[in-house]
Write a structure and sequence with these properties.
alpha/beta, 12 helices, seven-stranded mixed sheet, four-stranded antiparallel sheet, 11 strands
Length: 335
């Protein structure tokens, strides 16, 4: 199984400008209080990764309880808004509009340079090496970066490009012919991608099942998400400033993701944590919140060592799957 190390000079402000991120977080927290105020409508769930009912309270964030799975170490919100409530939220909340109208568009250039080109090359290489070359269709779920289709087209691997239930008009950013489709209509797709979607699904297991059903035999599912196994989340824990409901219902561990893939009837091809921001995120969080106390070693590393040491430490996190940004490729097993 593959794992990789990546360095593109990415900075947090490139893809999460402070002013935009602050406003998106403010709206998300306010909207969550309004849309999910009735606690009697919240739903208890077992671990969304491995399905275990055994758990212990981990921490609270803005009145929502995060639990730690005793079996795989994943952290997740329970009780949580129902699937129907989440669908209503994403269709009507101010935060969702802000994501589409400002956050996605205003960071499009930086995301394409730092993320989308890399994502496309990653997917193209694995599809070329292990995919079903006869299934020449590619679908991106809930597209909010239409430029991904330009990057995919340049690979020359797919005849049909599909934007599934897009959040942004596809022709607004992509200069290549793209068809719009609904998820239930998908079948026999060679490659499907979902960037930063798994963390806010009501049921990641059900989500994976739907994706599996849409793939061709030997079709590949590519996704990115946040993992609680990552350095910055492990260090900051309940002080993590950028974790909030409903954007982050599921913070699956590396072990949990592995189990989720297996029980979804998929074969793991790659699980890597090529994140570049862990050190920077911890440093910024400490600067903004004086109540955060770091272990002496980390305080020394951040304050006394230079940029080269920080870069080497970040590379160590990538090599050993200890960054909080995870990317996964999984294949539909032939029946």
């Amino acid at each position: 199984m593959k794992r990789v190390v990546v360095s593109s000079g990415l900075k947090e402000a490139d893809i999460r400008p402070p002013a935009l991120m602050s406003e998106f977080k403010r709206l998300s927290i306010q909207d969550a209080c309004e849309f999910f105020a009735d606690e009697s409508q919240l739903v208890e769930v077992d671990c969304p990764a491995c399905g275990s009912p055994e758990r212990a309270p981990a921490f609270r964030r803005y009145d929502f309880l995060y639990n730690a799975c005793s079996a795989c170490g994943s952290v997740f919100v329970s009780p949580r808004p129902s699937d129907e409530a989440l669908t209503h939220y994403y269709a009507h909340s101010r935060a969702s509009r802000f994501r589409v109208e400002h956050f996605s568009r205003d960071t499009a250039k930086a995301r394409r340079y730092h993320l989308l080109a890399s994502h496309a090359n990653w997917m193209g290489q694995l599809f070329d090496e292990t995919g079903n070359r006869e299934a020449r269709s590619y679908a991106d779920l809930n597209s909010y970066s239409p430029e991904i289709f330009d990057e995919i087209r340049a690979l020359g691997l797919f005849d049909t490009l599909l934007s599934v239930d897009p959040l942004l008009p596809v022709n607004g950013g992509a200069g290549t012919p793209v068809q719009t489709a609904a998820m239930p209509a998908l079948a026999g797709v060679g490659a499907i991608s979902a960037f930063e979607k798994l963390e806010h699904q009501f049921s990641p297991f059900a989500y994976m099942g739907v994706v599996r059903g849409a793939l061709a035999p030997d079709g590949l599912f590519f996704f990115t998400t946040r993992t609680i196994s990552g350095f910055d989340l492990q260090v900051l824990w309940d002080k993590t400033p950028y974790i909030f409901v409903p954007e982050h219902l599921n913070l699956l561990s590396i072990e949990g993701i592995t189990r989720l893939i297996a029980r979804s009837g998929l074969e793991l091809v790659e699980l890597s944590t090529p994140g570049q921001l862990d050190i920077e995120l911890v440093r910024h969080a400490v600067q903004q919140d004086p109540s955060i106390t770091l272990p002496p070693f980390l305080e020394y590393l951040l304050e006394r060592r230079d940029a080269l040491a920080h870069a080497d430490f970040q590379e160590f996190l990538q090599k050993h799957r200890l960054s909080s940004h995870v990317r996964v490729a999984a294949k539909r097993i032939k029946e």
